[in-house]
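Posting for a labmate who doesn't have an account.
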Amino acid sequence: MYQDLASAVEEDIATCTICTEKMSPPPSSKTPKALPCLHTFCASCLRQLASYGSGRIECPNCRSISSTPVDDLRNNFDTIRLLEILTHHSKADKGNTTVLDSSMKCSRNGHEEEDLKLYCETCEELICRECALFDHCPPSHTYLQINNAEEKYRPSFEKLISDAQSRLEVLEKSSAEIFSFLDQISEKAEKMREEVIYQSEVEIRVIEEKRKKSLSEIEKLENEHLDSLNFHLDEINNNINQLQYFLNFAKQIVPEKNYSNKYNSNNNNN
């Protein structure tokens, strides 16, 4: 049963969902890093996402944005502890020893050569004897031998895995639903854009037809008035030319002086 639980942890919790590779404790390019949204991925994949986003990381699960540099992101110590336990569980299977054996080394600065032989119940972490002397001193801290801690906390650890599995299923379902909603929103938005473009083109065509019709009517009306006025102007000009021709001809037949004397004589007789 424990082997099944360990496999579940490695598959669902200890595996980076971007590269699908198992994460590993620091220092490592596969160190589990937690984004501000609390989703965890390996440092290597997060660096690639940051390079794609010009320093900004978009969470593949919830699409939230983080501008925190990868090196400044918090290590997911819960995942790291599980990874350490899984690593040494594999060794324990080969050597038929306890899961939490004495071959694990402390990761604190200056304690790298010390074995993790104790479990601090106050801080809920594995510690070495140097840690117990300086950082986890009784009575403010209580700790157990690692074998006793394994026996005491194995049920809690199994429940943690079960709860994590259930929580993971809920989150994956929520993520799938959100992605579905995102797709629906994108599809609706695209249809709305297409409808707006289509309606705009229809209205533009109607307006263009009205513009052409109005211009054509104006041009027709203008030509009708111009033709009418030009016709009258031609008639006036013809009349002017005829009158000028008549006056010129009349003046040649009847000199202006004689015509004036005759006109005066007729007036005197009257």
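Reply:
Got it, the structure tokens are right above this. The first strand starts at residue 32 and ends at 34.
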